[in-house]
């Protein structure tokens, strides 16, 4: 089967055209130093991916406040001090006709205590469940602080455009700050930013409008949004969210409002720290059980929205990609972790007609108690290690074991490496 649909260009609502349907979704590269600055490693990594043929490359989390980080190794952009290196990063990521979009974010309360003892959130209250001990009690945001964070999102977007990034993605998923505003479990405010869905979504809309005001009408803005706060794999009923949390009905309403505001793409995701997308460290075995993530939700919204959708998670071969595009449930094929192993996957599929499948390895230390204690962290660290190899000009090595990944994380980040980060799905 010739890969024809993945090769088709896509014109976004703002008028910008991307060259094909491959959307490299965000992964935390963990390449920034203690100063939260981008590095030459980012430049090399994104140049490699750009040469691999994707239409859009989305960066890992770029935080809008360097005092509020979501993970060890985050880049933060709150002023122009790193503009020269940001320009080099953007230039590398836009080689070969690729777009490079900066994902901009604020962690809210989801900021590990090892790197932030003073997190901020829509409301006070610690993270629930087994992960609560890893996070400090957050302070409820004042109106002044809310408006400052909105300004920060806009300012980071402005700097991204000035540096040469060709778009931005606002991160409103995975339990970070904007998702916290959307969720009635996290947001217990009684002012104009809490209560009704319209009020809980106000912060996202204010951020979007502020970003659009500074980047202009012809600059792509994507939004990463949860279909619900509970990933499909652990739902009894797919339309259920976390009890009392942000659910699919609410997500669809928010998407329609974003479309009216002129969003250029919605990147569908799901889950939070307390209810992560990733369930095991079984690699290809889990992928075979799960298939492509969020497809039922994507089918549900088909016909209700005209804005392009990126469906991310579980795409491992051209057949599934072509089928999803042909069915019209997505307009962009979101992939991430396969690109840490097969760097030129888009070229292989589009140019060479490759009909294979990317099988992600099972990541294990060989010690069951360690695997159980650090399963999600092992997987994230393993892929960070692969990205660090690529950034140094080395090839990925799928034979690296989980113990080496754990030691790598400790060496790079110290004790902060062992705090849970948002356990992203195998995308």
Automatic annotation (TrEMBL):
Gene3D superfamilies: Aldolase class I. Keywords: Flavoprotein, Oxidoreductase. It comes from the Bacteria. CDD domains: OYE_like_2_FMN. Residues 8-349 form the NADH:flavin oxidoreductase/NADH oxidase N-terminal domain. One of its GO terms (molecular function) is oxidoreductase activity. The keyword Ubl conjugation does not apply. This is NADH:flavin oxidoreductase. It comes from Bifidobacterium felsineum.
